[in-house]
Design brief:
By secondary structure, this protein is α/β, with parallel strands linked by helices. It has ten helices and eight strands. It has a domain of 235 residues: Rossmann fold, CATH 3.40.50. 35% of the residues lie in helices and 10% in strands.
């Protein structure tokens, strides 16, 4: 062999792997590291796009793990309005590695509850300020609900087989005194007023985001050594940027950081993999065909294309699924509606659009 390129596979060359295939002929975009079986308890968490992922898996008969189901008096749209059945645990959107780490530390006793918000007699959780449409009636009710979610998170991590986490943002707001990272900028939703001395904007650099993600993975592995982690990056652009940059370039920075740290984590750990849903939706070869007219929301055919690659590559590497969920396994999970309309997806960041002049 005169050089290392002579015996590379077809997928290594742009002409044969991309140009000759076209957008609808692409294959082998992913070589899965571990098998995701229908009977596996699959936990979904993270940004808006994780909701698409969970629904699509459930529609195929896979066991989406609902670790915090709605109480019996809440059903359907009412349960969704209170953020049940959106993610495996009632956390609301978790956009950054630091937010995931905060939740895990609280769940497993490595951090205290900390700050709570009160406004006009209603109480709000700064880690998930919109999960109760009208806020909680009391501080005790808020803490009781937080406790239930932390119990559910422990259950999801310790009993789950696969943990799917979709990274969404690098921009965030933090408390200058405690370091607490908020789910949304204070003052953009009910609960508290913005305080320039107390609330600081932060755009997470690569090194810090990588460190936070590494710490979160270590905590997951500490509590469940057999847990597999599947990372994805949301293809949904920022709705607004407080960085001072144009929102388009701010989006490129944010997604580039998240893609880089996800790839590094997958390269570093045998139990961590990266699935390229971000590339499938955003790459120029697809010519933006999977976005709605707002160039932000992902259309159903985009989600279907992403998941068709997921299932095709799983089957290519591991063969057709050899089993279907048993009744016992189904009892621990929950089958969800197969609809993947963008209007069904809860994206708390979209609240920022209300402040556009």
């Amino acid at each position: 062999m005169s050089n290392p390129y002579e015996n590379l596979a077809e997928k290594a060359f742009w002409r044969s792997a991309v140009a000759d295939k076209g957008a609808h002929g692409l294959e082998r975009l992913w070589s899965p590291r571990f098998e995701v079986k229908p009977e596996h308890r699959i936990v979904t968490s993270g940004s808006c796009f994780a909701q698409h992922f969970g629904k699509a898996l459930s529609a195929r008969g896979y066991c989406w793990f609902d670790a915090e189901p709605a109480p019996p008096w809440l059903r359907g749209e009412d349960a969704s309005a209170f953020n049940y059945g959106v993610f495996s645990v009632r956390t609301g959107n978790i956009y950054t590695p630091r937010m995931l780490l905060q939740w895990l530390k609280q769940a497993f006793g490595d951090a205290k509850a900390g700050e709570l918000w009160e406004l006009d007699g209603r109480w709000y959780d700064p880690l998930r300020p919109v999960i109760e449409p009208e806020g909680f009636t009391s501080r005790d009710e808020l803490l009781e609900a937080r406790h239930a979610t932390l119990v559910a998170m422990r259950k999801a991590v310790r009993e789950g087989d696969v943990y799917v986490f979709t990274l969404g943002l690098t921009e965030c707001w933090r408390n200058t005194e405690s370091g607490l990272e908020y789910a949304l900028c204070p003052g953009t939703t009910a609960g508290t007023q913005f305080d320039a001395k107390l609330h600081r904007f932060h755009n997470t650099p690569v090194s810090e985001a990588a460190s936070d993600l590494e710490a979160a993975i270590a905590l997951l592995r500490r509590e469940n050594p057999s847990l597999k982690v599947l990372l994805t990056v949301s293809p949904v652009p920022l709705i607004a940027s407080a960085s001072g940059e144009h929102v388009l370039t701010a989006t490129s920075y944010s997604k580039s950081v998240l893609r880089a740290i996800a790839g590094e984590a997958a390269a570093r750990h045998d139990n961590v993999d990266y699935f390229p849903s971000y590339e499938i939706i955003t790459h120029p070869v697809f010519r933006g065909m999977f976005y709605a007219s707002n160039m932000r929301s992902v259309e159903p055919q985009g989600v279907q294309t992403v998941m068709s690659h997921f299932f095709a590559e799983q089957e290519r590497v591991f063969g057709p699924p050899s089993s279907v969920p048993t009744k016992k396994k189904k009892a621990k999970g929950k089958k969800r509606k197969s609809s993947v309309r963008s209007s069904d997806v809860k994206c708390e960041e979209e609240l920022l659009s209300a402040f556009e002049k």
